[in-house]
Amino acid sequence: MERVSAFVGVAYGFSLLGYLVAVLGFGLLVSALGAGFLTGGQSDGSFVIGGFIFLLGAGSTVAGLLGMLYKVIADGVAAGIENAVATPASRPARESDDGSPRSQ
Hints:
Elements (H helix, E strand, L loop, with lengths): L5 H35 L3 H41 L20
């Protein structure tokens, strides 16, 4: 099993965190806007519009989170395939439990 360096792992984590903040920020902002129409609406028309805007925000949040899950899985599969097809000469030598190099 190949290992990922700490730097690469942290950088990937921060990129996912930035994406998560953007998705949640947008979705919650749109949902709050819709909720404002729902609670402050004077007519039935604003209630319908508010409900639609709220559902749009909630739906975009869920879609963004599912997209992030898909990205994590796809990135993991791509890294696994890349490591699986790497030539043996490009892989670092592995050591057995007793410290001696073992054949691949």
